[in-house]
Design goal:
alpha/beta, five-stranded mixed beta sheet, four-stranded mixed beta sheet, 20 strands, 25% helix, 26% strand, binds 6-aminohexanamide
């Protein structure tokens, strides 16, 4: 039986490893809700299958599905993907799923953060979110790993770590009044240190323009290795993303990581604006309490929302002239892994991308 630990990972000698550390498997959740995914979620399911197929060429993958979708998902996914019933409200494993932590003896545990659908009743993206909030606990049981329940509302996409003591996040998200209004910035930093085992938090300001998560860091910047950060960028000074990326660039330039290193920044030019077409918006059911989709709205498209798996990197692509330069730049920066593009417009139309729908389970 798995235990609920009443201490915290740092006190017990556990820490969150970097995404590039070896994985046992990847976890995903299957999309189906028709008030977020257009046309009965069929195009999104095809896109998720492509992501799952790409990852499962590098490492094992488990797809969690609601009971009513088991047969459909099982039929669409390749046989090497394990499909398990895992009730959920929507398909964002990065955010409602666990953060795994490891110790020096090869033990693995997980952190089960409080999940409130990106803002609860103050701008959250759907209601209810009770099934999502149980996902990490169920993964703990499925995998037989002990669990910490953190006293913090937090989504996995709002943090990145370098595995050497540094955590990257944004003020727009973690200091938002719809997450943890009862805690000061210092208290939030302390919880981040206690539950991920880092010793240094680097704060960016805002996330990507129009990101409905309130600026998750995993769409704007991520570590490629200790000391090297990839940042979404635009050369267009009139683009609303420009001042946001410029501010992030300046903050990163001034920051030291946990080891006292200056951070090097690799700019990855963003795709051209991705705008919701009228026929795309029309395909989404309008439901009270769920974030509506408006034709003409700009989605938060970014190449930074890629996912590292054993020997690979799965990169969102948008049928855009910037796709190949982004892939080639990342490939050059990570020569020991294969950077593979997957079409990601349908995932983006749901509000996130490849990194948001995946969660790594590290090897001990
Ligand atoms: O991490 C993400 N980008 C998830 C966004 C959730 C969107 C729900 N419509």
């Amino acid at each position: 039986m798995t235990q609920l630990c009443n201490s915290n990972p740092r006190a017990d000698g556990f820490h969150m490893p970097s995404e590039w550390a070896a994985h046992t498997r990847t976890w995903m959740l299957w999309p189906e809700r028709t008030d977020n995914w257009r046309l009965g979620a069929k195009p999104a399911q095809k896109a998720y299958v492509a992501v799952a197929e790409a990852i499962s060429r590098f490492e094992p993958l488990t797809m969690g599905v609601n009971q009513g979708q088991f047969q459909n998902a099982r039929g669409l996914l390749p046989p090497q993907v394990r499909v398990v019933e895992l009730s959920n409200n929507d398909a964002w494993m990065r955010d409602c799923g666990p953060t795994f932590v490891v110790n020096g003896s090869g033990e693995v545990r997980l952190v089960d953060w409080v999940f409130n659908a990106w803002g609860g009743l103050k701008g959250g993206l759907y209601f209810p979110w009770d099934l999502d909030d149980l996902v990490a606990r169920k993964v703990a049981d499925l995998e037989g790993v002990d669990r910490y329940r953190a006293p913090l509302v937090l989504e996995g996409g709002s943090i990145h770590v370098d595995g050497e003591g540094t955590l990257l996040t944004t003020e727009e998200c973690l200091l938002n009044e719809n997450r943890n209004p009862e805690f000061t910035k210092e208290e939030i930093e302390q919880y981040l240190m206690d539950y991920t085992g880092v010793s240094k938090v680097v704060w960016l300001g805002a996330g990507v323009y129009n990101d409905e998560t309130n600026g998750h860091v995993d769409n704007i910047a991520c570590f490629l290795r200790p000391g090297l950060v990839a940042l979404t960028w635009t050369d267009d000074h009139n683009d609303p993303q420009y001042p946001i990326s410029k501010d992030a660039f300046e903050r990163l330039g001034k920051a030291l990581d946990a080891k006292g290193r200056r951070l090097e920044v690799l700019k990855i030019h963003q795709p051209d604006p991705v705008i919701i077409a009228a026929e795309e918006a029309d395909g989404v059911d309008a439901v009270d309490g769920t974030q509506p989709r408006q034709p003409g709205a700009r989605m938060a498209a970014s190449y930074i929302n890629f996912y590292l798996c054993n020997g690979g990197a799965i990169l969102p692509t948008f049928n855009d002239p910037h796709d190949e330069p982004a892939r080639a730049t990342l490939q050059k920066a990570m020569p020991d892994r294969k950077v593979v593009g997957v079409p990601a417009r349908e995932i983006l139309l749901g509000g996130g991308n490849v990194h948001c729908i995946t969660q790594q389970q590290p090897k001990g």
